[in-house]
Amino acid sequence: MIRHIARTTLILGSLLAAAAGWAADTTFNLSLKDHKFTPAELTIPANTKVKLVVKNLDATPAEFESDDFKAEKVIPPGKEATLFIGPLKPGKYEFHDEYHEAVSKTYLIAK
Questions:
Q1: For residue 68, what are the contacts with CB-CB under 8 A and spacing of at least 6?
Q2: Predicted local distance difference test score (pLDDT) of residue 15
Q3: pLDDT of residue 1
Q4: pTM strictly above 0.90
Q5: What is the DSSP secondary-structure string of 6-31?
Q6: What are the domain boundaries of the chain?
Q7: Where is the signal peptide (predicted)?
């Protein structure tokens, strides 16, 4: 019985460590300053669900939006928002700040 408990604990610990590693490896950061995203193009792994953290460094609200991968999130000034994207097929996907679309158009590249 003790061996079974020890084996189960070892397996659960391995699974938790793998899950923690997965989360760290699939988190990407964007910042928005002067109504422009940095980086201007963001590459993510294709066919993988990713966590996207968007920081709004502007003094006005922003609305992260993409018709290509169906995402929308208002981000107050000086705050950040988390979105989960994908999994996406390989390709190039446009996103922007809905409030300043002309200057904020940016691309997500899934490879």
A1: 93, 94, 95, 108
A2: 47
A3: 60
A4: no
A5: HHHHHHHHHHHHHHHHHHHHTEEEEE
A6: 27-110
A7: 1-23
DSSP-based three-state secondary structure for 57 = coil
Long-range contacts formed by 99-105: CB under 8 A, 24+ apart: 99/35, 99/60, 99/61, 99/62, 99/63, 100/35, 100/62, 103/35, 103/36, 104/32, 104/35, 104/36, 104/37, 104/62
CA angle 87, 35, 48 (to 5 degrees): 10
Query: Could you report the average pLDDT of every consecutive run of 10 residues in the chain (111 residues)?
Result: 56 48 74 96 96 98 96 97 96 96 95 96
Structure tokens at 41: 């193009």
The domain 27-110 having CATH identifier 2.60.40.420: the answer here is yes
CA–CA separation, 73 vs 62, rounded Å? 8
Candidates 80, 81, 76; CA nearest to 61 is: 76
- Can you tell me the distance from the alpha carbon of 9 to that of 84, in angstroms, rounded to the nearest whole number? 30
Side chain identity at 67, as an amino acid letter? D
**Whole-number Å distance between alpha carbons of 11 and 17:** 10
